[in-house]
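Recap for those who missed Tuesday's class. We walked through two folding examples back to back. For each one, the amino acid string is listed first and its predicted structure tokens come directly after. Nothing is annotated here on purpose, so try labeling regions yourself before you check the end of the notes.
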Amino acid sequence: MFLGQYHHTFDDKNRLTVPARFRELLADGVFVTQGFDKCLMVLTTSAFEQLYARINAMNIADPLARSLRRIILGNACQSEIDKSGRILIPQNLRDMVVLEGEAVMVGQGDYFEVWSPVHWQEELTKQKDVDDQRFAALNLTTR
């Protein structure tokens, strides 16, 4: 499971060092795509295949489904972890979320997000500015 927050830098070839705790989970391959909140999503092969199956089952006559396909599939790339524990993030995806030099990786259970430090700080500020009643309608029971 992908948990926690990690700060790393890009090397001169646009490779990002993946936290050691995440590497084993990505041994079978990595998919990187546009996320929903000024971030990228990094998924295992099995998580991406499940997401793909759900998106592929959507009606392509639905404009919202087509838009989601463009966001997720149109921006996806497959990658591998190199021997040094790095993944390549293409320039077009880095530009999309303004990743320059540094990145914050945030675990999300089945995947992790990659944020620019500035956008991540904005997200943290938003989380603090909203009272916790926003989650009241969600069923977060543990049993």
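Example two. Treat it independently of the first, because the proteins are unrelated.
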Amino acid sequence: MDPTIILAMGIPSAITAFCFWWIERKIERRQAEQDKKDDARKQNEIIVLKGVNAAIALGEATARAVQRIPDAHCNGDMHQALEYAEKIKHEQKDFLTEQGVEAIY
């Protein structure tokens, strides 16, 4: 076989292989960056949930402390707010439990 034919067939194949390698490498880099962003987003969600739980706990503790003060004369708003905070806390816990079970199976 003539070496020029072999060379003519090999150059386009090498260029094509290089292009595919370069594109694949670029895709892998983007995927790695996206994975890092996803991990940061997950951590942010965890921190936000912990903050919400802390705020609810603080609100409940404050409401219960105010209710124990004899001269405070708590109105119905305080009792309703406390009930609402407890309801939301339990709904959140139930939702996260459900999500955890679905993630396992």
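Answers for example two:
The mean pLDDT is 87.
The chain is about 90% helix and 0% strand.
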